[in-house]
Amino acid sequence: MQLNNFPPAIAETLSLKRLQNEQKQIKEKVESGQMPINIKISPFIEDNTKNLFKWILIIEGRPGTLWEGGIYKFLIDYGKSIFTAPTVTALNEEFKHIHLYEDRKICLGMVTEGIYNMETPLYMIAIEIEDLIHREPNTTSPANHRLCETYAKNREEYEKTIKSIARNCS
User: Fold this and answer.
1) Mapped to the 3 state alphabet, what secondary structure does 67-79 carry?
2) Against a cut of 0.70, is the pTM above it?
């Protein structure tokens, strides 16, 4: 039987156990200094209870970058199973990025159905999102075409826009 063919209740139980281990792993990575200091990740609190299927990711803009000074918040939502790709949604209304769709979902291969690998640890997804924000955008597969066009045609205006986003997300 393939892993994604488990009955929903079993998939949910297996997923919850995995996410409990993920929580421990994240704590260990933070305590040992293996997690970048500008990344914070914790379970979503719902009705005074940790929901391990949802995680809040907070990324501080790296010093010396256009994103410096901004605090960018995301929700990583596994639904009820780690066997399908989680959705990653930007929570800051002001946040715009070449790799962010209008519906606030992030465009990132490792969390795309068909590419997603359920064995990828949550902390690695967080690190990849942090890296996606700060690296040079991939203009061959933009989610935000308007911002991508600005990037391609007027780099100065693009940089001004990103700095404004960082200020508005602080």
Assistant:
1) CCCCEEEEEEECC
2) yes
